[in-house]
Design brief:
The protein is mainly alpha-helical. The chain has 5 helices and 2 strands.
Length: about 130
């Protein structure tokens, strides 16, 4: 391979692939932040159980309570540091009552907070 081709490939990887990875990381972090911040809070258990993992779904329900959501968002951000273009970021919350909360069971948040968070994420991702 010629030196010019190597330089071209390196520039492509840095500008195009690197840019896409940055936008993917940003979008995933926006989604987690919106989900966490929109989740109704009683003890903080529902907020604390949002998980962001790369190439696997985290089905645990043992995360600590996180009323502010700061720890959960920070943990998600750390998970994203190694994300590559061919990876998949999975966001999950496997608490048995998370669907009921999203259906409006809590007086603290309207029904559909997950869908609302994803709509905001889509809008913000288009702005990136």
């Amino acid at each position: 391979m010629s030196n010019f081709r190597k330089q071209l490939d390196k520039a492509y990887d840095k500008k195009v692939v690197g840019g896409l990875e940055d936008k993917t990381r940003s979008t995933a972090l926006i989604a987690v932040t919106e989900l966490v911040n929109n989740t109704p809070v009683d003890t903080g258990r529902a907020r604390g159980n949002w998980n962001l993992d790369i190439n696997a779904v985290n089905e645990s329900i043992d995360s600590p309570e996180d009323e502010s959501g700061f720890v959960t968002i920070t943990k998600a951000e750390a998970s994203l540091t190694g994300l590559k273009i061919d990876d998949t970021a999975y966001i999950s919350n496997h608490l048995p009552y998370i669907e009921r909360l999203n259906d409006g069971h809590s007086q603290q948040s309207p029904a559909g907070f997950v869908e609302a968070a994803l709509q905001v994420t889509n809008r913000k991702a288009r702005e990136l």
